[in-house]
Fold this protein.
Amino acid sequence: DSGVTQTPKHLITATGQRVTLRCSPRSGDLSVYWYQQSLDQGLQFLIQYYNGEERAKGNILERFSAQQFPDLHSELNLSSLELGDSALYFCASSEQSTRADTQYFGPGTRLTVL
Amino acid sequence: AQSVTQLGSHVSVSEGALVLLRCNYSSSVPPYLFWYVQYPNQGLQLLLKYTSAATLVKGINGFEAEFKKSETSFHLTKPSAHMSDAAEYFCAVSGSVGNEKLTFGTGTRLTIIP
């Protein structure tokens, strides 16, 4: 158990819908990262927050947004869902935001868009 | 920019045999390198990391990796494979300051033959 929790574990929805994925980092960790894992794209970085502020963006679609709240939990919002958004979404957290930090991964949310 | 290449998407070894999973990196800054393992339906777990200290890094579950700058490699090894080592293994490189994302390789699925 990494100490990072993600809810829900599974999510099945229809095209065009909007969903919210939630992540609680390890106690004391200030950084939260979101990654998407799919068969065709592999593991891709989406976005990073550090202590409530957006720090870096990766291959995140405009239909996706995220935020980190004062209690440091984070939410990833996916809207106007398409079939291709079906994937495993991971949240990871680290103590600070240095290159050497270990990122601890949650169990993931499996999103299926029908 | 940083990238990693994992040679061999599938590797099979007999139980008790040497495990060798290959990773080569490209980095515009001194690299920080990571190996993660993913068991079915689980998140990623850190095996070990290189952060510019000792070039031979020991990790969990008997794994180790050697950083070789001249070869731009960070191959993962284990002297004797166990059935429980069957999983997918990912090599990753950390980003630059201000964007500490992990860039992952495409993964190597390790199968252990009894």
